[in-house]
Amino acid sequence: xxxxxxxxxxxxxxxxxxxxxxxxxxxxxxxxxxxxxxxxxxxxxxxxxxxxxxxxxxxxxxxxxxxxxxxxxxxxxxxxxxxxxxxxxxxxxxxxxxxxxxxxxxxxxxxxxxxxxxxxxxxxxxxxxxxxxxxxxxxxxxxxxxxxxxxxxxxxxxxxxxxxxxxxxxxxxxxxxxxxxxxxxxxxxxxxxxxxxxxxxxxxxxxxxxxxxxxxxxxxxxxxxxxxxxxxxxxxxxxxxxxxxxxxxxxxxxxxxxxxxxxxxxxxxxxxxxxxxxxxxxxxxxxxxxxxxxx
Length: 295
Ligand SMILES: Nc1ncnc2c1ncn2[C@@H]1O[C@H](COP(=O)(O)OP(=O)(O)OP(=O)(O)O)[C@@H](O)[C@H]1O
Fold this sequence. Notes:
Layout: E1 2-13, E2 16-27, E3 31-35, H1 42-49, E4 57-62, H2 72-75, E5 78-80, H3 93-101, H4 110-116, H5 132-144, E6 150-154, H6 162-177, E7 181-185, H7 189-195, E8 198-203, E9 206-211, E10 224-230, E11 233-239, H8 242-252, E12 261-264, H9 267-275, H10 282-285, E13 291-293
Parallel strand pairs: 3-7, 3-8, 5-6, 6-7
Antiparallel strand pairs: 1-2, 1-4, 8-9, 10-11, 10-12, 12-13
Helix pairs in contact: 3-4
Residues 13, 16, 18, 36, 38-44 line the site of adenosine-5'-triphosphate.
Pfam families: ABC_tran
GO molecular function: ATP binding; ATP hydrolysis activity
GO cellular component, one term: plasma membrane
């Protein structure tokens, strides 16, 4: 079952090709993360899927309909997280969630939405008094109140503190467990790794890579780096068999290997090397932070 199907999608702004022949299928119930540098074409693609922008060519099907021709019934089956609470400072979260709920045939209970986005303590206070992260949670609440089959989340956790991000990830996991299909754009690689079944990397309006977070760009089969301290220096070797190397080291040291670290390329390393040829700011593309796994 396919929730979203895209074939040969093209969108131009004047002479600028923002989306350049994109093909992509997203399955029903899948959590899919669209990654890419600024200007890659993510928002354009997502807004075409939401029916907010027209395309120049290509075929698009979202929940079985062409978004350009879709009606209100279709719109009620999708959830979009917008800056919906902006300009509503005098209302409370409970009031705006309740009034939004009334526009749907089978909405979630207002208290359930408030609890799902962790706004119990702020539910009856004016929106003017909410922090940036709390407003964003309210926006997410408004996006899920209609029990959408498909939820679009555009950079959902920008401005969240670390605990709020983790709470939000739990919310997304519970929505996914209920069978909601989720299309997420994010600049946080850890968010994609935590949430997504698959990730797609786009740059210049084209799909560069499509895989599970663990396998993206052949990451799972990349060599590991083993390093340790010896003779007052840091020793490093790259190997396809890190367990064997660690065992050899353990035998040589007769036990604990000093300051042993085994690391593999992180999703961020792989992502940055995929997009490097497409990014003008070369310096930013050569960061090489490796995830360290203590063996
Ligand atoms: N309304 C518009 N008019 C003209 N050009 C546009 C318009 N919207 C987007 N673009 C251009 O199209 C390209 C893709 O933009 P888009 O917003 O889809 O990228 P993005 O991947 O969402 O970027 P970001 O991560 O910065 O949000 C960019 O070069 C952008 O300048």
